[in-house]
Amino acid sequence: MGAGVLRGARPAFLLLLLARAASCAPLWEDPQWLRLLHYKPRLLGPARSDARPAGFFLHPDGARDPRAELEALQAAFDDDSPSPKDPARCAFPARTAWLADRLGRDAARLLEPCREFKDWAALMDAGGVSLIFASAYLNNPSSMFGHTFLRMERRAVKDDARLLDHTLNFSAETDETSGVLFAFRGLFGLYPGKYSAAPYYNKVQEYGNIEFRDLWEYRLALSSGEVAALVAHSWEMGRAVFPYYFLSKNCSYQLMPALEAAAPRLELMPGSPPVVGPVDTLLAALAVPGLLKERVYRPSHATLLRQRRAMLSADERRAAWAYAAGRPEEGDGLSAAFPGPRRALVLDAAQDLILYRHGFRPDAPQAVRDLERPVLVRRGRLGAEPPSVAQPEWASPPEEGHLRRRLTAGAGARRGGAFGEVAWRPGLHGFADRARGYLPGNAIESFSWRLRFDGPTGRLYVKELRPIEIVSLTRFDGWTRKPSWMLTTGLDTAFEKGRGPADSMVYDGALATGLTAGGGDALLGVLASGEFAVGPVLRDGGRMGGGLRLVAAADAGPWRGVLEGGLSGFFLGDRAPNHRLRAVLNYALSRDRALRAEFLMRGPHREAMLNAVLHH
Fold first, then answer.
1. Interval 551-594: pLDDT, tens
2. What is the CA radius of gyration of the chain?
3. pTM assigned to the model
4. How far apart are CA 18 and CA 12, in angstroms?
5. Which of helix, strand or coil describes residue 121?
6. What domains, with CATH codes, occur in the chain?
7. Which helix (H) or strand (E) holds 451?
């Protein structure tokens, strides 16, 4: 923009601001203007934008100076010089509409030459918005706690055509494959984070068909004006770059400022919380009275496969397996006597199994197409519809799960005397916690610690400090053949060495894999593990070896029982074998409160304790 235009616009603009000053704050201090710029308060110094300076601002100091940015945009209102490019204000349609309304200008006329934005908005054709929650995916560090994104719903479209809607997503830009390096760089905001739009079917393919993650769709009650404002602000955010912080300003958090900027009535997540998870943003949205219109469950491909398999008899399973294995004549013989609806169910299950085993690929090799063709031909000839697949009993909405943070306080007794303990965990879900709202057999805890006061010695010490602990127990069956696994590392107390608890600290870790069986509300996993530990209490300062681990859980109403056992042997360092057993009985008083009894045996050590548990 020319300097003359800026000088000419500024006097009239300042007169308007002076006229407003007697009755209200200047425009550049208006909370909505600051929201559009993604300004956030800071512990030290004045508020500034979370966005990096380039791209998201007209003025070089726009990230720090909201007045300068407002003046630059107002000056751009009168910049209609001929150019093959759209005017500068077209990069910021939401800001332009807001400021035009405050200045009494015609926003429609100002945005009339914005060809690229208008074409993009027409493509989106948004008449509604849904908040989508993707369940946790433990095989990817960036998705271990779940994920949320927005779906922009096209007008006058039936629900069965929603796959063609577009989505608004925020994510880190990285091709990093190392989980450790991703976590490290993500913790310190070393990745650029960007908003992007993509068809919804891409997300269903990625989450539901490839990563086998269930989706929960929450349709939001936004007005047509708020939806239009979100579309306009989404266009602006496509130019923005934000530091991506794994624990706080992440994929889920960054959706909240976008919704707040589009709908000023919303106050979803004020300030800058130090830790934010996908469930936190979902709960923040659902806490607004009347904001939720409808909730829809979209099961993953693996969930549908397991549900259909459970509906089949033994003979029907054999027929489905024959079809999926490329033996259609055998499948015909096994299913010839089945009624039409049951045969349709068998063929659908066979197709599910083929896709599960060989993947969803548009460029599937000829061998896979040869497996599919007989199944699809037979299914197409059937006029019967199969029985509908019911939602799994365990698939409860994520908002019904306990809150992320957990505070535990209790007392107990060991051989030699009593002790008191307090523990805290910022997220997300422990194996002994109330399971509703979480994936069955899965748990992930991060940065948990236990602080204990030992009565006999009068010493206060750290009993446990674990950066990460993951449990992924999946019932094994002949179709999915998915193994279970566990990972844990951190500081622990080696009670088995027979020394004073405060003098038995080690740093240990274990990685285990195996199989899990069970049904209904009970499961049992047996896993082989590799283990290590280092610490002065161990002979030669450390040990390395392996062993067997047993993990069992059962639920009955508000009760949850957990049994964990292990037997380990070591071939390096301290070779003394180790055995341990932990039993937990958890009684849920409510969604976020529980009483918990625990018994621990580790070598010669025995202890029992009672805890009060609060999720918050």
1. 999 999 999 999 999 999 999 999 999 999 999 999 999 999 99
2. 29
3. 0.88
4. 10
5. helix
6. 3-112 (no CATH), 122-298 (no CATH), 306-381 (no CATH), 401-615 (2.40.160.40)
7. strand 442-454
